[in-house]
Structures are given as structure tokens and as C-alpha cells.
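Hi there, hope your week has been kind to you so far. Thanks so much in advance, here it is.
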Amino acid sequence: MSETTLRAVFQRRPYTSPIADGEIPVPGAKIDFTEVDLISKAMPAVCNLAYDIGEITFTDYLQARDLGKPLVGLPVFVTRNFLHNRIWYHTRSGIAHPKDLEGKTVGIKSYPQTATFWNRAVLASEYGVDVSRIRWVYLEGAHNAEYTPPTNVVPAPEGATLADLLESGEIDAADDPARPFTDAGVSWEHDPETIKPLLSDTKAAEAEWYARTGVYPILHMIVLRRAALERLPSLAGDLFAAFTQARDAWMPRITNPDVFRQRGRDIVGRDFLPYGVDANLPTIEFACRAAHEQGVTSRRLSAIELFDRELFALPA
């Protein structure tokens, strides 16, 4: 039986590389894998249907479905994290509490960026912040180029960085201003009396939130082009099984205890990569509501709109 060649791009990880390398085969498919150093660089192409299999952010997928794009989401959520600790503020801004962000200017990488989206959702649901009353200044546009953000979302000056804008006082607060430095493996040098984190004891706040709501923020996920699924009708289930097998083979081999302390995994427990729809319904439904409230999507989506019905029955 001949195989169907499928173009694929996703970040190499211990629990995804076996699919990229063909170590775990996908029946009927030949994976033509594209190597990338940083998956975010390929996400606009995936959103633009350039790949049969790809990794995008959860908010990318919400927007793609809202826009009617022929992408099929797999409930394979390859990265997750709690993000309460990302907001920093300038002490001369008049900010003392989260609610004080209203009427202020906050810098972000991108308005629909998943981490920024989850931060706004936490501010709104846990601290009563009306995020529509914040002026959001972004560095980058959306991966779905067709998206138009709300009117309180404006671009930053060309070439600006969040750290520079925050330290100069041009913005009052910022989401993860240290990111360029941490990505380069260096410390963000700033005056701790001038720039401070908005929330204290974020680990305890994240743990309490998860225990109360069951929400474990989804960052990235795997999607298919619907045309690929039409060529291989069993592809969704087979690919889900392959990614699940790769995850299940990796997790018992983890020997470094630090792995279980990263990205909020010590809050969730050893099953820190739950796949499937049912296991993630509280998170999915919370995100659908928040995306509409924030203007990330034009309407409130639901799990049944995001995932084909047969995917609900897949064992995780």
C-alpha cells in the first residue's frame, strides 16, 4: 500500500521527536518533517495552511476556527504552564494592585499570544480587572494575519523592546519583559526598586487556582490540514495515538527531578501532559469564554466546535 507524504513541522522534544523521525510510524503516512530552531517562526505558515501537520498556539487555533480556516485540532497539547508571574510594573506608574492596571498602558509581545492571553484571563477572572480598559501595546502581530485586534490594542514603536519601554516609563507595565534576556541565557539587569512584579507568591496563587478551577493553561497544540484528513480519514486518530505513545514512552524515563518542577508540573502532578478532550474540558471551555471576552475571537466557541466529534472518544 502506498504512503501519503505529509509535510509536518513541530518543535523537537523527547515526546515529539519519535514522530518526526519515523521511530513511531503513522499508518499510511510518510512524514516529511521540517526542522526549525524555534517553532513560533513556523506558526504563521501553519496557520496559512502550508503544512499538513503542525504546531501552533492554542489561541492561534481558536482564531483559525473563528475565521473558518480548514484546520483540524488534535487534543495533543504539547506545552502548558501557569503564568501568574509574568506581569511587571514601573513603581512610578501608580500601580499597587492588579485593578490599578485599568487606564494604564501595558506592553506585550502580541495581543493573541497564548501566554499573554492567559495572563489577561487570570487578571479578569481572579482580580476583577477590566482588560478592555487597558491600553495594550504590542511588538508583533498575530500569526493569523486576517485577525484585527480591539481598538485598545496598538503597535509599539518600531524596534522597541518591552524592557526598554518599561524602564523608561513609556509603558506602565509589561508582560514578560525579561524574555529576550532569558532566551539568550543572560539575566535581565534592572533596578528592583523601580521595576517590580505585580503579583507576589505566585506559586501559591497558581496552585490554589488550579485546585479550584481545574484550569491548566494550554500553550501549544498539534493541528492538521483538513485536506490531509480527507486523504487519510484515519489520520487524526492514528496521529493522536502516535503522540500519546511517544509521551507515554518518555515519561517513565524521566530521571531528573527538576523536570517535574518546571512549568507548574509540581502543581499538576506526574500526569503533566494530559491529552484528549474530556481531560481538558475545564481549560478548553474557560479559554473559549475568555477569548471572546478579550476580543481574541469574534464569538464564543465551544469544545464541540474546536474538535471533531470522533476525537472526543480518543483514549488519553
